[in-house]
User: What shape does this take?
Amino acid sequence: MFAARGDGFYITQYQTQEPGRAERAFNRHDAGTVLKKFYSIELDDLTAPPGVEMIDFLEASSSPLPWMTGEELGQYAEKFQKSGFTGPLNYYRMMDTNWMLTGAKITVPAKFIGGEKDTGVKSFGIKHYIESGAFKFSVPNLEVAIIEGHHYLQQEQAEKVNSEIFSFLDKLFGEETPK
Assistant: This one.
């Protein structure tokens, strides 16, 4: 599905048929640096130059993240240092299969919370998919909230995300959710 974007495209690199390629690239950096590179993304196109692995192309902010303490980053890094990044990479490896399986409508009430600066919302026609009503066609009982932030909203905008979730639950159950 993404092969047409070329070998430098991050999903193409993560889906590669070469076992362990992405893991080897990630392992050239300590887990904290890998996380900071992803948490610092400000690119609209996640394509590395020819012959360059995406993780090597990304830059880690030299400044502390405004929405995560160094201690919190260290806790995440410690977990990924032990487990590696194969689990998150497997999400991308299954992406084509997941898309092939998405024929059924989701009929239960659902809420989608996305970040206005999230590359995942801004890319691949996703923003149009959301705004055109096509998303709502697939998920008829959908409520959408696009809020300020990037890809890691639950950390970057924790209070706003919680407020959106509580608001959704309040509407769903017709009463104020205990907070």
The beta strands are 110-115, 142-147. The chain has two domains: 3-98, 103-173.
